Each structure stands twice: as C-alpha cells, then as structure tokens.
Amino acid sequence: MDYASICRKTDYLSEAPETFRAIWSRQSALDHFIKSNRTALVAAGAIVKISREWFVVIDVFPDVAAQILGLPVAETQS
Length: 78
Known about the structure:
The chain is of the alpha+beta class. It contains 4 helices and 3 strands; from the N terminus they run βαααββα.
C-alpha cells in the first residue's frame, strides 16, 4: 500500500471532490456513511484500518462511494 495515497478519515473532507463535500457537509455525515457501509468499503479497498484509526484510500474511495450512493463516477472526478 502506498501511504501517500491515504489520509485520516477525519481529514478526508478537505481533500474530497466537491460532489462529496456537498453530500457530506459535516464530518458526522461522512462518519455515518463509512460506518453504515464499512464492509463494502473495506472489501473494495476504499478504507483501511491502521492501529485504531480508519484511513481513506484517496485513489479508490471516490469511485466506491459513488457506486454505493448510485452516482455516476464521472460526477465525482472534480
């Protein structure tokens, strides 16, 4: 795994595409999404747990989240 391509779950919104910042306007909304879809996100390699903390895989998370939300992947690429 390339550690440069991950960020803390709590820091992801500042790096997220605009579409996701609009959907998850608060950290608690993103936390709820990740908790509710953790199994699918882990299976797809979109999030990883290191020690006691969850990290978002920046290269993978947007596409997987878009699929879960039913959004076209192209909309999340900004």
